[in-house]
Amino acid sequence: MSARIEPKRPIPVNKPLIRLYHHIYGDMPQHGLIRISRSICPVRFTAPKRFLSKVTQPTSELPDRHHIMTSQLSALALRGLTKRFDRPAVDALDLTIRVGEFYALLGPNGAGKTTTLRMVAGLLRPDAGSVSILGIDALADPVAAKQIMAWVSDEPMIYDKLTPLEYLEFVAGLWGIDPRASEKSARNLLISLGLEPHLNERCEGFSKGMRQKVALAGALVHDPRLIILDEPLTGLDALSARHVKGLLQERVRTGCTVIMTTHILEVAERMADRIGVIASGRLIAEGTLNELREQNGRNDTTLEDMFIALVDTEAAAA
Ligand SMILES: Nc1ncnc2c1ncn2[C@@H]1O[C@H](COP(=O)(O)OP(=O)(O)OP(=O)(O)O)[C@@H](O)[C@H]1O
Question: Which family is this protein grouped under (predicted)?
């Protein structure tokens, strides 16, 4: 059932909104910041100009697309990245991902994948080490890093009082993009994910898979060059998974870099240019599928067999 949002209705500040806001601005919103203004671009920020200027002002260090494609920059370089909770979760991790790669980060439960990606996305402070995103020191300049990066968590962060189109307008507004300029690409993005029949329905009635797709579309609104996804295909039906995979492959074709964690090894096998396997917070194997096969002396084996053998060997040595 379709439920249009009434114009000029204030949006209460709630948890998903706070998480989204915090992710982009690294700060907390206050009550009354957000107001729906007009039906054509219904979602507007009223107060956070000081934050908007942070994300919209061109950063001189921000590399342009041509420079990214022609330089020797890494899309992501982690050096000695370390995070400890009660024990080490990420242990002096070194990882380099090239521009334009589709990289699958694999590992058993608790290996440190999400913790690594949360540090890259600026949601968790490392105890030690460095994070460089397209040459930008993400720890020293997190706002500049976020301008060129998308983070899609395994728990979709969407504001479900809005329709998908309004949500994307809202996110575009957070990035300081004129909603009129972003409307067409937002619509196309949602359609490419199979959400056309639901463009004007409130997200609150959506299934988990539909919410995941809206969250993915929202993360791509500012045209990021590095897309980081934590388990993006879990819980998606076959058609939805195909839509998501198609969208990610399309982005890679246009020069974006994608880093994805997944437990669905067939997806990594089919889609990834390179695969990294981590266990106990350390990289234990990396390469193309064929390189991994060569390294492990298993010429015709599946990724699943290789993964299980690698993880078993690591566990036995620990
Ligand atoms: N906020 C936290 N507080 C305490 N321990 C944590 C926290 N977040 C993660 N950990 C611990 O850090 C380790 C790595 O967790 P992480 O979520 O990064 O693993 P993962 O590889 O993403 O696992 P999964 O495949 O199950 O999602 C685990 O031992 C986990 O219990």
Answer: Belongs to the ABC transporter superfamily.
Predicted confidence (pLDDT) per residue in 249-293, tens digit: 999 999 999 999 999 999 999 899 999 999 999 999 999 999 998
Dist CA 72 CA 274 (whole Å): 18
Atom 5 in ligand 1: residue holding the nearest Cα: 85
Domain 73-317 belongs to what architecture?
3-Layer(aba) Sandwich (3.40)
Q: Ligand 1: distance of its center to the CA of 92 in Å? A: 16
How does pLDDT run across 215-258, given as a tens digit for each residue?
999 999 888 999 999 999 888 899 999 999 999 999 999 999 99
Q: Which residues, judged by CB distance below 6 Å to any ligand atom, belong to the binding site of ligand 1?
A: 85, 89, 107, 109-115
**Distance from the alpha carbon of residue 105 to the mean position of ligand 1, in angstroms:** 15
Q: State the distance from the centre of ligand 1 to the C-alpha of 115, rounded, in angstroms.
A: 6
Q: What is the ipTM of this complex?
A: 0.98
